[in-house]
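User: I'm putting together a small comparison set for a docking exercise, and I want a reference complex before I start. The sequence is below, and the ligand is flavin-adenine dinucleotide. Could you produce the 3D structure with the ligand included, as structure tokens?
Assistant: Of course. I'll restate your input first, then give the structure tokens for the complex.
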Amino acid sequence: MRSDQTYDVVVLGGGPVGENVAQYATEHSGLTAVLVERELVGGECSYYACMPSKALLRPIEVASTAAHLGGLSRPHLDVAALLARRDEWVSHYDDASQVDWAEGAGIDVVRGHGRITGPRTVEVTRDGEGPVVLHARHAVVIATGSSPVVPEPYAAALPWGSRDATGVVEVPERLAIVGGGVVACEAATWMAALGSHVTMLVRGDRLLGGAEPFASEAVLEALRGAGVDVRLGVEVSRCRREDARDTGLGRVHGGMVHLLTTTSADTGAGAPTGDQTSPAADGEAGAGEVVEADELLVATGRRPRLEGLGLETVGLDAQALLRHTSSPSESSRGEVPDWLLAVGDASGEAPLTHWGKYRARVLGQHLAARTTGAEPEPVPDDVPVPQVVFTDPQVAWVGLTASAARERFGETEVEVVEVPFTGAAGAALLRDDASGTASLVVDRGSRTVVGATFVGPDAGELLHAATIAIVGRVPVSVLRHAVPSYPTASELWLRLLEGLPRDLRR
Ligand SMILES: Cc1cc2nc3c(=O)[nH]c(=O)nc-3n(C[C@H](O)[C@H](O)[C@H](O)COP(=O)(O)OP(=O)(O)OC[C@H]3O[C@@H](n4cnc5c(N)ncnc54)[C@H](O)[C@@H]3O)c2cc1C
Ligand SMILES: NC(=O)c1ccc[n+]([C@@H]2O[C@H](COP(=O)([O-])OP(=O)(O)OC[C@H]3O[C@@H](n4cnc5c(N)ncnc54)[C@H](O)[C@@H]3O)[C@@H](O)[C@H]2O)c1
């Protein structure tokens, strides 16, 4: 039987972003909101992405640190216990506590697949029950996240996606990873520590294409040091698997995977070596080399999850929606009606939990203000996106890289300072083999920091000071009076600021 219900705000997708929109739209506003979720409330982040990956990586990082601190013996990594810790952090894939949170905050949860069927109207298809039709007085917010891109020729091999890697149950003896981005680098770190022989097949000439080149180099060196066979400038032209079958999350999906690879000569990648390579066979001779593995992880990016949402029922398609931002106050929303908004991974903005949640808080507050007549909180222009990659060493950056800043402000208008991570006693103390780099990018015109990168142990914890400096547009002459405690890694800020030209420091 069909039932109809009306709310002020209908949110499609109960991930971290959907939860934040609903919370900020309803808090202190008297508005009502409903979250429509077809899998688990808490979304990709809580069960299949951020939480399980960091639950796996943290003990591995601590073990690696302990192995390089005089006075400690090398800790033993207990794989079963590590996977059990991961299971605890994903609440054994049970979202009861997240549902309790929503209900406690006065937000209703409707389970099922939501689809727009007309202006301000969403139909939710539910398992074993009739559909629910939800009417939105003010807004329908699309917070449906993103899906992994699985390019040809991999799909028929049923490769692992990031869900399988974070949900690993069976550790494949040999794991091939296609991609050199964040998922690939983090997954290579934990899969190698769990005991897989990992081969990374990277199309580009470096890892982490969005980071400063020195960060890419540090991660490359560290992964190779951990036994990962990283091959740059490699394309996969053919993928074949015997007995591909869906064996479940984190289990090996069938027989051996054969990948026919070609290497571009100009990347200096060199001839692949190791026991995962065999000469091309089965009529493939001369076409390249074959990498054989027990499992393949495809980590080639994600795209907004906008299919099957019924956008066509209101005269839109995904591209039309992506052309406009999540801000309800945007003056030109083109063909997108003012009651329809997208936020988080679904909006095409940086696919990061903290960024999506930030945009959701802004959007939720705007929705509340728009409908209650209150003044919306002002939002600064040009808020930078921070990112931490939890490899060992960690890589953390915010704002512009040196090359992006030079492109924006001009070659002579940008100062870049780099210091070794061990340049401050507090940073060097973190582990005996500490290494890495810290850098600041400064715009001469505004005399402010416009970008920062930290590579080293616990580098992620250094990042927020840089984010504050950028958002607050704090002149570097003022930053010199922000005194870091001795002996903390934050004293790297002293070295960085001392490395800038004197005229900027005054
Ligand atoms: C392996 C991995 C590790 C990551 N680690 C980090 C990290 O450390 N830090 C970080 O900031 N980011 C990380 N990310 C990115 C982060 O997971 C995403 O940016 C974040 O989950 C986006 O949140 P969201 O709410 O927009 O989408 P999601 O978390 O994907 O939630 C969307 C929800 O919508 C539901 N849904 C979709 N369509 C419908 C529909 N039609 N009807 C009903 N429900 C629907 C889905 O079931 C899902 O629950 C990681 C990503 C991956 C893949
Ligand atoms: N710590 C974190 O914050 C964290 C962790 C994991 C993921 N994430 C987010 O999730 C998103 C998705 O991560 P990702 O690693 O899948 O994407 P990504 O965009 O970071 O990297 C994709 C990689 O795949 C390569 N690639 C793309 N198409 C290819 C093809 N056809 N063949 C071979 N290689 C190809 C790219 O060159 C790149 O190296 C990222 O944007 C990231 O911000 C964040």
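The pocket of nicotinamide-adenine-dinucleotide (ligand 2) is lined by residues 151, 178-184, 186, 203-204, 209, 299-302, 351-352, 387-390 (CB under 6 Å). The longest strand covers residues 129-142.
User: Thanks, that's exactly what I needed.
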